[in-house]
Amino acid sequence: MSDLKMSPFVKWAGGKTQLLDKLRKRAPRSFGTYYEPFIGGGAFLLDFQPERAVINDVNEQLLNIYAQLKADAEAVIAAVNAFDAVPCDKEYYLSLRRAYNEKIVSRRLDAECAALMIWLNKHCFNGLYRVNTKGLFNVPYNNRREGSSIDADNLRAIGRYLREENVEIRQGDFEAACATAKAGDFVYFDSPYVPVSQTANFTDYTKDGFSYEDHCRLAELFGRLDKKGVYLMLSNHNVPLVHELYQGFAIEEIDVRRSINRDASKRVGREVIITNFDR
Predict the structure, then answer these.
(1) pLDDT digits (tens, 9 = 90+) for 111-143
(2) Are the beta carbons of 43 and 8 closer than 8 angstroms?
(3) N or C: which end of the chain has fewer CB within 10 A?
(4) What contacts 24+ positions apart, CB below 8 Å, involve 58-61?
(5) Is residue 202 pLDDT above 50, yes or no?
(6) Of 274, 214, 218, whose CA–CA distance to 248 is shortest?
(7) Per-residue pLDDT for 201 more than 60?
(8) Which residues touch 203 (CB under 8 Å, ≥6 apart)?
(9) Are 31 and 183 in contact (CB under 8 A)?
(10) pLDDT of res. 206
(11) Which pTM value belongs to this model?
(12) Order of all β-strands in the sheet with 231-237
């Protein structure tokens, strides 16, 4: 295991920073390759720092950041610093958003594209990542005018970890990402969460979203990997559907903070950590 100090380079919905201690305590003591099919901001990966890992996400632009940091973190840092050097206002924000969307359309997955996504994440409303039906980023400006958009040393550390440890970066469906998982490997699933109410929408970080059928498919994959002898851990909202889908596995309920709710009395919620092994 590495001992670098690292944290996510973007704010990402469903980030696991507040659950890190709980996740680490419940992880298996030894395992083969670590898999994280929904890598997102990578909070657990960067804290846990496994020596062999496969990370995956459906978001191509997000994975490009990991790839670019692995290849040349200094190029990403220089590009973000160049964006930061210009005084920011709404017009400037929209111009960089257009530049980023042009990258998406042309699929130019380079260091500048990675830098644009990081910069926009720091200057968009509430750090959201949302795209329209065409897959174009459409989150409005948050009125931030100054300040650094990155911790350069953090990006360098992430790049070093990705290079020096055996970390494979994949992009695509979560089932395909786990196709090579074998007995003794460890998979942590942090998929988009099941809505906490019937009126809530399923998470939509990509233009295709993550549906009820996808949650059922994930549960079926969980069962198949369990039969193969893979160590499994999954986090989700504490809702009846999750208990139904993962019946028979160890389901532990935990308290979490909900910082986005306007009503302070509703800022404590319940989540679950599901495992198929005894720690």
Answers:
(1) 999 999 999 999 999 989 999 989 999 999 999
(2) yes
(3) N
(4) 58/171, 58/172, 58/173, 58/174, 58/206, 58/208, 59/129, 59/205, 59/206, 60/107, 60/109, 60/171, 61/103, 61/104, 61/109, 61/113, 61/117
(5) no
(6) 274
(7) no
(8) 13, 14, 192, 193, 209, 210
(9) no
(10) 47
(11) 0.90
(12) 166-171, 52-57, 34-36, 186-189, 231-237, 268-275, 250-257
State how far the Cα of 29 lies from the Cα of 177, in Å rounded to an integer: 23
Q: Give me the amino acid identity at 83.
A: F
Token look-up 């295709």 returns: 208
Helices (H) and strands (E) in the chain, counts: 9, 7
- Strand 166-171, strand 34-36: pairing: unpaired
| Dihedral of alpha carbons 117, 122, 124, 127, sign | positive
H/E segment holding residue 259: none
Q: Which residue has the tokens 């002898």?
A: 229
Q: What is the DSSP letter of 131?
A: B
Q: At residue 140, what is the residue type?
A: P
Domains of the chain (ranges plus CATH)?
17-58+173-202+211-275 (3.40.50.150), 64-153 (1.10.1020.10)
